[in-house]
Every structure is written in C-alpha cells, then in structure tokens.
Amino acid sequence: MLELPGFLGVGAVVGNSDLIVPLPRHIGTTLAQTYGLRVHECPLPVEGFAVRQHWHARYHQDAGNRWLRGVLLELFSHHR
User: Fold this and answer.
1) What is residue 60's predicted lDDT score, i.e. its pLDDT?
2) pLDDT computed for residue 79 by the predictor
3) Tell me, what's the pLDDT at 80?
4) What number of CA atoms fall less than 13 Å from residue 61's CA on the CB side?
5) Looking at residue 76, what is its pLDDT?
6) pLDDT score, position 58
7) In terms of C-beta distances under 8 Å and separation of at least 24 residues, what long-range contacts does 19-22 make, across chains too?
8) Which stretches of the chain are DSSP H helices?
9) DSSP code at position 78
C-alpha cells in the first residue's frame, strides 16, 4: 500500500509497479493515455464526493477570480 497526497505522481508510480489505484474516471483515462495504463470499472461501490470552491472575501468581486470560479463551476457541473 502506498499513500500519496494527490494525483500528481500516481501515473508514474502505478506505471512502474504492480499497484492499482481507484481514481475518478476522467483522471484515470488521462493517466492511462499518458502512462500506458488500463482503466477498469471498480468492482466495489464508491461514494461520490463534493467539489467546493473557497476564496478570500477580498477577492469576491475580483474580475479574474470571478472568471476562474465560473470556469471551474462549468467544468465540475458536468461531472455531477
């Protein structure tokens, strides 16, 4: 068993070992293409997870921050 703080190194680790990793489909597909991995359905029920955005109040009206929040909202709204 290996524990990583995020997805950044997962492809390299799994691609050079006999480990498996449960991932959201879009991340697994991207890593599979990059590292030559295979994607399979998880045989166990998997709970969903919430994606939330947080920002400091001083950036609430900032045009760039509002744009980025809108892009992220659009991106993650399609994965519900």
Assistant:
1) 97
2) 61
3) 56
4) 1
5) 83
6) 97
7) 22/46
8) 10-15, 25-35, 63-77
9) T
Residue pair 35/27 in contact (Cβ under 8 Å)? The answer is: no
Torsion sign across C-alpha atoms 66, 71, 74, 77: negative
End-to-end CA distance of the chain: 30
Residue with tokens 């991995």: 37
Torsion of CA 39, 42, 43, 48, to 10 degrees: -160
CB of 13 closer than 8 Å to CB of 35: no
Closest CA to 73 of 55, 56, 57, 51: 51
Q: Which amino acid is at 46?
A: V
The predicted model scores a pTM of 0.57
Amino acid (one-letter) located at 79? H
- Chunk the chain into consecutive blocks of 10 residues (it has 80) and report each block's average pLDDT, rounded to whole numbers: 87 92 90 93 86 94 97 81
